[in-house]
Amino acid sequence: MNTASPAFVADTRIARQQHVLADGRELIYFDDPDTALPPDRAPDLRELEPRPATASMRQDPLTGEWVSIAASRQNRVFLPPAHLDPLAPSTPENPSEVPSNYDVVVFENKSPSFGPLLTDADAPDGLADLAAIGLGRTRTSVGRCEVVCFSPEHEGSFASLSVTRARTVIEAWAERTHALSRLPGVEQVFPFENRGEEIGVTLRHPHGQIYSYPYVTPRTQRLVESLDSYGPTLFADILASEQAGDRVILSGEHWTAFVPFAARWPIEVHMLPHRQLPDFAETTLAERDELAVLYRRLLRGIDALYPTPTPYIAAWHQAPVHLRRDDIRLMLQVTSPRRAESRLKYLAGSEAAMGAWIGDVLPEQAAATIRDAVLRAAAEDAAADAGKALA
Length: 391
Fold this sequence. Notes:
globular; eleven-stranded antiparallel beta sheet; 391 residues; HIT family, subunit A; alpha+beta
């Protein structure tokens, strides 16, 4: 069993400010290299209720999967008006989750699916304990869930950030992956962004989340089975095959994005690093620098497919903390149910009940459409930048 590497190189141009919220939750400010913000930050002076009790997990004996029952999440805020945005910098009229103005900020979720406990008497006792099958099995949903605010603005997404700000967000992902992987009871760390009300987003503020699970997720367990069958070169061979084909969307020195051979969703793009990297924590500064440019460009292209912004889930799959880190490669999977300007793909009986997918769009045609949109968006951005330079 190989474990998380201690290798992590922080970008010293990005300052960190560590604080504690009124109810004991951790909060960290990440400042852009060219920030105009002062180093001092206000304390959280709110009077808050105690944090909810840690949820409990129940095992489905038919699949072996664990389901966290987090009833406290029913009370979370739903699409508030801008003046009551809980992720905006705090004001007297809106005592929000973030006491001061910020560039990027990360804090523990107020209503987590996992945590705040990291261990207790009924916590999982390792992966073997979780793999056993039985009736009525429960465990404490230990772990941690964090919110990553990309900007103090009320609306937007990763695509609406500057390259500098995108780089700060990526630095936060890398540092938090490094820190969360070292918490007791954490088996896998998952950064992601849900974008759009069609996906189920409850806050319009540009943000993502990081889940730290007490188990290896079902999707990753299936990946391990594929590695066992195919061999340890699976990711390298997928990358080489896609780079030689006609589904590549964009590529740089360190990363390549492509529509996968067996795409399930009408819009689906994967991105892989060019070398074996188990997670964000082991990326170099150069890899993070290029990713800020390419990932932003990719999402701006996906937004350019239609006149209105595209709903999506941007999922950063990382290797488990203690399993197959030499074989499982960091991988982005962006998926959207949008199959036309005013139509969404809903999971019907075959997909939702049986997990048997039927694709609506030929992957090669989807790649050509997305590639054209990426080029179009890049040209529009270049023209806008030229206009600003002349102004």
